[in-house]
User: Which sequence fits this backbone?
């Protein structure tokens, strides 16, 4: 069997179980085997099997195995140390050294450990980690053991990532140059700092686990609350051990559905406030009320069930072996199981475009993908309040737009958003209120518009007015910084007719909504293309009549436009249409949305074409029935045969403009004016 076929092979569940049990049997054999020759022979076989089925870079595998050997050597070194004399010590350092018996025991332990690790690494090449956990569950392994294995797996990568970062920092500062002693010194420093920093990283990872309800029981369904205040803080304070107060007697009221920017310099207390509100710290002073109910510090898990925290570093919140397992973890915390859980999982993968990444390990994703996954994983538990710590930090333009678009959707859905950020432009774009902390104290909590106008306060606390706010004071605000609510208040449209052949049209969707969007275009015989998995009867009839073309399938992205300059979004899914609208806007295409006309860069009016006239109407108040009624009313006023009179009048007008000054020109103008007055009288326009 070739290497490619061997690596792409995927066994059935029964064979996967056999692979796992076989690997465990080899581990047991390796641990109990005493013959040194057979041990070495098995070790060589394990290495050959691992290199044969390894799917990544062989050089990378060699480096990882070398690091594993180094860690094992340091781990087993104490076994070889003993007290004795020259007759019992292989190396003697003043009565202490490496003894013959200890060295043999250490080598035996290291050989067994390394062989067992090779077996497990080879198993993971045949049985991906996300499948391994499914196999363990199918064998009835306790969930607690599986979760411990998941955490061990995540910690291994924390250790590897920390080592890589420290080594890069050393190399950037001329490390590992010079003689052998200098390289040994750098390596020793690398190992010592790795274990210290990995412990710090592990603490942060545990914090991320808690933020996703790791220690909590599955939440029981609760009735939606209608309390106007979702959070109340009365004299809330917090002090870390042997440190100055991080928060000092905060009095705050957070309204349901509010979008708030939490501002303040480093050390102002923003992170501490987030940790308290999300139930990750205990021992606060004062009172904290959730939806009118007092939350004792010892019962802070109540906060985690309704309030979700999205950490700035998404690595701390992602700890399972695959993307789909990250989402499945939160769904289990909601109490979902079996068919209901899998159905919801598939909906999330489709809704947030994670299906192509479902089997990828989170640590293999890009920074933008990890941030997106962490946000979706938190949203999968449907929290009432969402706390976001620098949600766009380290993101490129694509994922920044995706994250901001999702936050706009959450705000429109009535979620309460509190965003901690140092980006004033982001705060201006998202927030309707501003909370400003200074050295643990509340400096102000007010409407965003009033806050940005207070130049004296901004100067005192060292914050700059957002550029977009300054522009808005003297000129219309750029579209990127105009909120949906403001667009609704200042909506206007250009009365423009576009030459249809110059703007090829694509309709995304094939339902009744798509038919309503396309109907006026089809009536005018304007060519258009429909992309949808199926068609409603009206559109199917239009396709059969040759009025438009149908391509069976789903819209995948910009590549499906194929020259289309105008896109009509009629999917019947507001969230999905909003996401596609942002992509089309970034690509410079004209588009219209069925679910929300205010999202579109163009709007299709109720159009009538009769007797050589095109009447197009739209309502500023989103009243399509009214525009349709007016179209029918005015269309009924047009007399039969009007087209020929309009054509004659048009010829008189062209003749009047074509002739130079003189008697003929005057006669042409007089004939045109007479024809115009006659037509106006006929149409009762005078």
Assistant:
């Amino acid at each position: 069997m070739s290497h490619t076929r061997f690596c792409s092979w995927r066994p059935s569940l029964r064979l996967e179980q056999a692979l796992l049990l076989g690997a465990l049997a080899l581990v047991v054999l390796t641990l109990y085997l005493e013959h040194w020759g057979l041990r070495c022979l098995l070790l060589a076989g394990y290495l050959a099997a691992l290199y044969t089925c390894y799917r990544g870079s062989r050089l990378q595998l060699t480096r990882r195995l070398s690091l594993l050997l180094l860690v094992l050597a340091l781990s087993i070194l104490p076994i070889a140390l003993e007290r004795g004399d020259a007759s019992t010590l292989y190396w003697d350092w003043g009565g202490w050294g490496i003894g013959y018996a200890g060295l043999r025991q250490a080598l035996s332990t290291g050989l067994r450990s390394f062989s067992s690790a090779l077996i497990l690494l080879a198993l993971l090449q045949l049985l991906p980690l996300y499948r391994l956990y499914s196999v363990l569950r199918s064998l009835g392994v306790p969930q607690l053991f599986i979760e411990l294995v998941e955490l061990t797996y995540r910690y291994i990568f924390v250790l590897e990532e920390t080592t890589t970062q420290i080594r890069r920092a050393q190399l950037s500062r001329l490390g590992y140059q010079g003689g052998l002693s200098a390289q040994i010194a750098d390596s020793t420093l690398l190992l010592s700092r790795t274990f210290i920093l990995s412990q710090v990283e592990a603490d942060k990872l545990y914090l991320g686990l808690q933020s996703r309800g790791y220690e909590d029981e599955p939440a029981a369904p609760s009735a939606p609350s209608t309390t106007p205040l979702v959070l109340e803080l009365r004299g809330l304070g917090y002090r870390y051990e042997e440190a100055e107060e991080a928060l000092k007697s905060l009095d705050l009221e957070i309204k349901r559905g509010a979008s708030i920017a939490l501002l303040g310099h480093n050390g102002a207390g923003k992170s501490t406030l987030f940790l308290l509100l999300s139930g990750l710290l205990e021992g606060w002073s004062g009172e904290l009320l959730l939806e009118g109910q007092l939350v004792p510090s010892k019962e802070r898990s109540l906060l985690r069930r309704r309030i979700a925290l999205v950490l700035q570093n998404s690595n701390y919140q992602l700890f399972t072996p695959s993307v789909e397992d990250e989402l499945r973890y939160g769904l289990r915390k909601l109490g979902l199981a079996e068919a209901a859980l899998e159905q919801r999982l598939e909906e999330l993968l489709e809704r947030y475009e994670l299906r192509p990444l479902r089997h990828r390990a989170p640590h293999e994703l890009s920074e933008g993908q990890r941030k997106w996954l962490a946000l979706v994983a938190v949203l999968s538990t449907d929290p009432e309040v969402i706390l976001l710590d620098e949600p766009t930090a380290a993101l490129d333009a694509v994922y920044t737009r995706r994250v901001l678009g999702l936050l706009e959707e959450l705000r429109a859905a009535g979620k309460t958003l509190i965003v901690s950020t140092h980006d004033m432009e982001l705060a201006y774009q998202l927030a309707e209120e501003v909370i400003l902390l200074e050295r643990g104290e509340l400096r102000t909590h007010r409407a965003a518009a009033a806050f940005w106008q207070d130049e004296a306060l901004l100067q005192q606390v060292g914050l700059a007015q957002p550029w977009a706010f300054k522009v808005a004071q003297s000129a219309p605000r750029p579209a990127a910084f105009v909120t949906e609510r403001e667009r609704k208040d200042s909506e206007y449209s250009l009365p423009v007719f576009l030459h249809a052949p110059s703007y090829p049209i694509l309709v995304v969707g094939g339902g009744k909504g798509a038919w309503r969007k396309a109907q006026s275009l089809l009536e005018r015989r304007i060519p258009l293309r429909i992309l949808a998995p199926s068609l409603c009867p009206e559109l199917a009839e239009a396709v059969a009549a040759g009025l438009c073309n149908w391509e069976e399938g789903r819209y995948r992205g910009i590549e499906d436009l194929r020259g289309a300059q105008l896109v009509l979004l009629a999917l019947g899914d507001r969230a999905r249409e909003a996401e596609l609208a942002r992509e089309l806007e970034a690509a410079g295409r004209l588009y219209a949305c069925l679910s929300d006309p205010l999202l579109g860069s163009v709007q299709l009016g109720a159009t009538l074409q009769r007797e050589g006239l095109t009447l197009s109407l739209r309502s500023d108040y989103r009243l399509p029935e009214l525009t349709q009624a007016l179209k029918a009313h005015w269309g009924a006023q047009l007399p039969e045969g009007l087209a020929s009179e309009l054509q004659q009048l048009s010829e008189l007008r062209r003749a009047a403009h074509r002739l130079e000054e003189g008697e003929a020109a005057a006669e042409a103008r007089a004939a045109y004016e007479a024809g115009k007055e006659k037509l106006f009288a006929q149409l009762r326009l005078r």
Observations:
- The radius of gyration is 35 Å.
